[in-house]
Each structure stands twice: as C-alpha cells, then as structure tokens.
Design brief:
With 210 residues, this protein is of the alpha+beta class. It contains four helices and eleven strands, in the order βββββββαββαβααβ. Pfam families: NUDIX.
Length: 210
C-alpha cells in the first residue's frame, strides 16, 4: 500500500473569527459532512513554525529550556520560531532562529521532518531542519527584549540521552520529540542523514518561494 496523507477539503458553509490575537486567531467553520449534515469546527489559525535540530561533530544536539505558560512547565526545546512573514522561505526563518536563540550558524541544512502540531484543533504546520557544521555566528549576540525568552538556558546534549528522555516521558515538546526521533530513524537507515530531503524541498502545508 502507498500510505501517505492526501489533500481534501469538505465544503465550508460559513466562517466566523471570534478571536484575533497578535500572531494567531481562532476560526469557527460550519462544515458539510459526508452524510449531508453540518457540524461546527473551531480551530486555531496559525502561520506555521520552524525548528532547528543543530547537531555537532560529537553527536550532541543544541537544546533550550524555556517556560511555557499554557502547560505550566519549563520545557527543553529546539531553537524554533513562527513564520511571521507570509510566503517566507522556511529555511531563512530557521537560520534566523538559530542565530537569534543560540548565536550560531550552520554550513549544511536538510529537511528532517514535517508534521502538524495538533491537526484536530489547529492548522499549525511545523518543519524541522537538521543543521550540521554548526559554529558561532559572526557579530554581536542578538538581544531579545522578551523577558521570557531572555531566561532561556542553552545546552548541548547527546542524542542518545534525549531519546531516553523522550521514551521515559521526561521530554514533551513536539518539535523536540519529532526531530530527535526522526534523526534517530534517519541515522539507522541506509544513506543516513545524507538521504534526507534538501533544505529547499517543497512544503505543501506552507508553500513558499525558494
């Protein structure tokens, strides 16, 4: 069997936007179901996100610890951020986040994994890049005005340790979980990470200009 996601769109009879935030919104759609009935679907409208799994020559991954108020926890995460500019090349967004959050740059970029954060309640699409050949960025360190992000802790952690933390239920950020496990799978298959998609691979969930 050829198992893959496919595009499909049920008829939307009406749409309301009861909430508009600074970066995201909530839409309420009346949708016609396959049996002819209608149902309301409320969901978060999200611009999309990028994450960077930066891997050094010793098999360590760059991670950040950040407080996340909705879940009332401090989570270990990959450098990440929103695609604030419509149609922005996600690679450029990823490179910007690696610089701003870790003052780092990378020579080799690949697409590691694409996924939807919570497709039952949000249209947020996330692309995780693998970055290798990582080094300190040029110039002065980016100064973050947001006090929440200014409190981030940065660490380089062995990949195997992160895998164990995920399987033990001790690490739960979705970008970190998806990226770390995808990298582990890529390293175990024929061709390794060199067989990953190129950095400018198409992304149907968030089309962009290369």
């Amino acid at each position: 069997m050829n198992i893959k996601d496919t595009a499909e769109s049920w008829e939307t009879l009406s749409t309301r936007r009861p909430f508009q935030g600074a970066k995201t919104a909530v839409d309420s759609d009346e949708v016609r179901m396959p049996d002819g009935s209608t149902a309301r679907r409320d969901y978060q409208v999200h611009p999309g996100s990028v994450c960077v799994l930066a891997l050094d020559g010793e098999g360590r991954v760059l991670v950040l610890s950040q407080y996340r108020h909705p879940v009332r926890r401090r989570l270990w995460e990959l450098p990440a951020g929103l695609l604030d500019v419509p149609g922005e090349n996600p690679l450029l967004g990823a490179q910007r986040e690696l610089y701003e959050e870790a003052h780092a740059k990378a020579e080799d970029w690949r697409v590691l994994v694409d996924f939807y954060a919570s497709p039952g309640g949000s249209d947020e699409a996330i692309r995780v890049f693998l970055a290798r050949g990582v080094s300190e960025a040029d110039g002065e360190r980016y100064r973050e005005s947001d006090s929440e992000e200014a409190d981030m802790e940065v660490a380089w952690v062995p990949l195997a340790e992160l895998v164990e933390g995920i399987l033990a239920g001790e690490l739960g950020n979705p970008g970190l979980v998806a990226g770390v496990l995808a990298l582990s799978a890529a390293l175990a298959r024929e061709g390794g990470v060199d067989a990953l998609r190129p950095a400018l691979a198409p992304w149907p969930a968030r089309p962009y200009e290369a």
